[in-house]
Write a structure and sequence with these properties.
Farnesyl Diphosphate Synthase; globular; mainly alpha; 71% helix
Length: 284
């Protein structure tokens, strides 16, 4: 359910793209230093967005180093470090652990079982340090699972569970900015759940897994209905972002908020159109 909050590379300046990668690589390094190779496996674009947002809001002191790594062995690249990376890395691990549990429940994946167990010890420490976030994640994952087991197709309630989950993750500390961050996280969480459900329709149909849109997929205007849901959620998290006093990284963040989040949607829609055309050709 992650990987949708990305940049639109074609619309970023070269300098901004390098800055974005420095945060992505910084989070990757933090995960490795704190949790080893298994930590790096949980790296996501969505939490990269969060570290850029928090850095833009709180403007901590930063160190930029140039390093090589396994992914970039021949050329040094910028890697950023600040005091907020530790929180973001912990939230990355926490969400990855719960995602493993969700995947195991859906598909009984042996690989996910092993990976989830490898994170058990780390997650115990994170739960003690970030009780509010951990309790919220557990609560809303449980509520979401219960709704899905009931075969509820109430997309507002389903996406709202993931929205409430993410709003707690967005709030690193309860201060004057928490309400804006909460609302931004809530609507971004709804957006992610809706787009993930839309993206997974074919897979869930074939695997006979629950999907929030399974009962509407064949109705007239379905694709436009999904886009309207996404537009409403995106409008809300964009509105909340504009209320925050973010100057640093503002160009990168606006690229993601107004353009990047739609790149995966366009890919999914194109894939659905292609699938529909192939089915029509077979029926002729």
């Amino acid at each position: 359910m992650f990987g949708y909050i990305v940049v639109n590379e074609s619309e970023l300046k070269m300098r901004e793209m390098e800055e974005y990668r420095s945060y992505y690589c910084g989070l990757c390094r933090e995960l490795k230093q704190c949790y080893g190779r298994k930590g790096q496996l949980s790296l996501s674009y969505d939490l990269t967005f969060l570290i850029i947002l928090l850095a833009g809001l709180y403007e901590p002191e930063e160190i930029i180093e140039r390093q090589r790594c396994m992914v970039h062995p021949f050329r040094k690249h910028a890697v950023r470090k600040n005091a907020l990376f530790s929180y973001t890395a912990d939230m990355t691990i926490l969400l990855s652990w719960y995602k493993c549990r969700d995947d195991i429940a859906d598909e009984k994946s042996f690989v996910r079982v092993c990976y989830g167990k490898s994170l058990d010890k780390a997650v115990c420490k994170i739960k003690k340090q970030y009780t509010r976030q951990a309790e919220a994640v557990e609560k809303y994952i449980r509520e979401l699972s219960e709704l899905e087991k009931m075969n509820s197709y109430d997309i507002d309630s389903l996406s709202g569970c993931f929205g409430h989950l993410l709003e707690e993750i967005f709030v690193m500390k309860e201060d004057e900015w928490q309400m804006g961050l909460r609302r931004m996280g809530f609507y971004m969480g709804k957006f992610i759940y809706i787009l993930d459900s839309y993206d997974d329709l074919k897979h869930d149909r074939e695997k006979k897994c629950f999907n929030a849109f399974m009962n509407k997929e064949k109705t007239l205007g379905f694709d436009d209905y999904v886009k309207q849901l996404l537009v409403m959620a995106a409008a809300e998290f964009a509105k909340e972002f504009e209320k925050l006093p973010v100057l640093k990284n503002a160009g990168i963040l606006r690229n993601i908020i107004y353009s990047g989040v739609w790149t995966r949607y366009e890919q999914v829609r194109m894939e659905r159109n292609k699938e529909r055309e192939q089915m029509n050709e077979k029926s002729i």
